[in-house]
Amino acid sequence: MSARFVTLVAGIFFFFAALITQGFLPFFEPSSRTPRVTAVVRTDLGQLKWIHTEATDYTPLQQLGRDVYLREGCWYCHSQYVRPVTGETRRWGPVTESGEFAYDVPHLFGTRRIGPDLMRVGLKFSDEWHLAHFWNPRMLSPDSTMAPYRELFETPEQPVAIVDDGAGNRTLERTQVTEGLFDFASQQQIRLTPNADGLLFVPMLARGKVPVILTPNEEYTGSTVKIAAETQDLEGLVAYVQKLGMNRGKWRDLFEPQQLEVMDATMPRSEEWIAHGKEVYERRCLGCHGVNGDGNGPAATFMFNQRPRSFAAAVFKFRLTKEPLPTDGDLLRTITRGVRGTAMPAWYDLPLNDRLAVIQYIKYVLAVDRSDPEQPYAFFIEEPPGPPLYIGKPPAASQPIVDRGKEVWQVAKCWECHGMTGKGDGEKAAGLKDDLGFGVVPADLTSGQFKSGAAVEDIFRTMTTGMSGTPMPSYRDSLPEEDRWALSYYVLALSAYKDPLTLQPLTISDTDRAALNDLTLEADSPAKAYIPGADPAAEASEPGEGNGRSVTGKQDTAQGG
């Protein structure tokens, strides 16, 4: 018997084995169609706990996106399955559960992984990042093998002229194309900024509004733009991708690789490290932040809601210093964790040396005022960061502290920007701008997408230092420490028991809510997930399930997650 014959027989056997196990068994095995999953919820006291719940079906828009995903062959290269091994879970997130595929017929597990696994991609990036990615993946990652999907955009052949609207603003010329995209008679404006090459992204949000071309720092000086407009197919595809993994709730807030906490990681200036940092920057950061670090990279036009940070003025939002400049540790924390809710991804899988090197490049090459070419002003040399501020151990969570935080919310007038319920719809929200003249949207705190981190210490840090370059002030001098802690707990409570994707309240009984709010309840892993409706004191018939101990009980599951 030849080796060729054995190989042929084995190949045929494994082909049919895969066909049966992945193609037929999921239709007949009951456990493969259960909607039961475990998900992370935030409690009223700011804790994150696992709970048994049910996966939710796709919305019509998400289902449209799934159809597009299938039609365009995305599943050829991307898998949707996190295997139960250490490397998998540290890279992607929690192991997938059968309930996550309850509404997937056919399933899209995938095996090739030419591209990244997508089972945990939901809310890892902002919608804007995905839009730029579909236009040209290599704008964001030069090494990407993914093809551009520009056919999903509406791309008129003829450039459109930029004209004066007669009221001091610049807008687009009214043509058959632009009148199909905008409503020039509307009282609502949409501010859009072309990239340096004259590409102008038009989101679905712009339909029914009048366009205003905003270039406060001469981001584009041309007289015409080339339009790339979002379509319904593209909107649906992004919605589908954002859904992936979100049946597991706020799991990312417990994801160890994104919980780096470091006070400092100082490295002496090194020309060799700066040179390496430039290489890293050009491969990983240039697409958004631009060649010169001015926040006007080729992908920036897609980020109409939150522009990429400009390093040129050395203004950084996230730090633990009294002075404006952050330490290397602050920058390392931001790069590693990413900035939730924005196009800035987490770079925890980038080698540590690469992250440290790009910090050197940002500090000593990009964060330099070159308005006077003969005397450039290097901020990190002329005014180095001061010592980090000390953040002590937070007080124990309690309802009185949350109630006190609600009072501080009123006294500090947080509602003026963030709204009475924290949804970012305060009376001053519409007119806010950042230091570069772009509009700033106050955070919707009910989403739980906290830019600087999801722990109470992260919120406290933001309350203490503010966010440089934005209207968010520091409360270090105006509020005592105990009030800042109380306010931080209250901010966390605003996203309690909310679906992180839809932002809708989870359906959960008062009894289960009270049980989850119990600080002594251990539910820090899927194996210890709380079971709604079960008696936490009950003895188990099956080991390793629920409520911090082995229990059985009725699965009166909460919706969402």
Automatic annotation (TrEMBL):
It comes from Allomesorhizobium camelthorni. Gene3D superfamilies: Cytochrome c-like domain (1.10.760.10). SUPFAM superfamilies: Cytochrome c. PANTHER family: LIPOPROTEIN-RELATED, QUINOL:CYTOCHROME C OXIDOREDUCTASE MEMBRANE PROTEIN. It holds the Pfam family Cytochrom_C. Residues 549-561 have a biased composition (Polar residues). Residues 272-366, 400-495 form the Cytochrome c domain. GO terms for molecular function: electron transfer activity; heme binding; metal ion binding. InterPro entries: Cyt_c-like_dom (IPR009056), Cyt_c-like_dom_sf (IPR036909), Cyt_c_oxidase_monohaem-su/FixO (IPR003468). Residues 525-561 are annotated as: Disordered. PROSITE patterns: CYTC (PS51007). This is C-type cytochrome.
